[in-house]
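Look over both lines before class:
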Amino acid sequence: MRRAGLLASVALFAACSQSPLLFTDGIELAAKARQLDAYPLRSTSFAGGVRGLADVVYARHDGFRPLTLDLYLPPEPLPVAGAPLIIYVHGGGWAGGHARASGAFSDFPGVLARFAARGYAVASINYRLSGEARFPVPLDDVRTAVAWLHKQASTYALDTSRVALWGGSAGGHLAALAALQCTSQCPKVLVSWYGVHDLQALRDTPDYLAIRSAAGRLLGCELTHCDLAVLQAASPVGRLQGRGPATLLIHGDADRVVPYEQTLLLADRLRRQGGMVRSLVVPGVGHSLVGADQAATAAGNKAALEATLEFLQQNL
């Protein structure tokens, strides 16, 4: 069954890579993952009439930096009910990263603005990192951002009945936790790119020392010494609430940072609970969908973007 699913994912990737990539045409990627804050190099107006609002404060906590998000608002006229909302949660091993950077994308704000040009409002959030606070604080920050955006729906013309949570790597972990352990203001869609989904399985996986160490810093205990209850509470597969939202999971099968079995585990668990889930395993690329060269990296990331846009159009 797993082999059949993998072959189907490979076939889907091949189809994506051969078809015209209209949405992703012109997007630039480096040969490997990078950290770049491209937003200050751009005005707050993007192509297609998209308006950007940088560093909007959504929460303040004594002793910590203000928590901010960037908003990308679609061109007018907007639907009477408001624009559907995508909330993006960045990666970085829970210890780094920024709302304006993702993997090998040279201009990630420009990527998010493309979604806004298609009619979506996009909020890309910053949260407290593992060097600032331990779990569940980063998850609490994601939930706080979701609640703040719900409260600001009329201000920014957001349709909060149509919300997607999307994250990459550590951000995929936090987005999946917020979506799958949700009890109120729950999203309709979850998208996780190469996310960590089962910390107990990660603990028992040989190698992958960097991500295991990063997870240990997040939790405040080495994975091999953490209580099982702690690992379950911090794992998207641990305490699923019902079937969950419509879910898209994307991972490279050559990922040596987060094992792609993490995506297979979550997909299997959701399907067994009757959830609607689609998984795309991209062959030959590693973490951040980085391939052997720039062309492979671009092909993998653009196929993932096309799949993400299609999934949002179908389910949000």
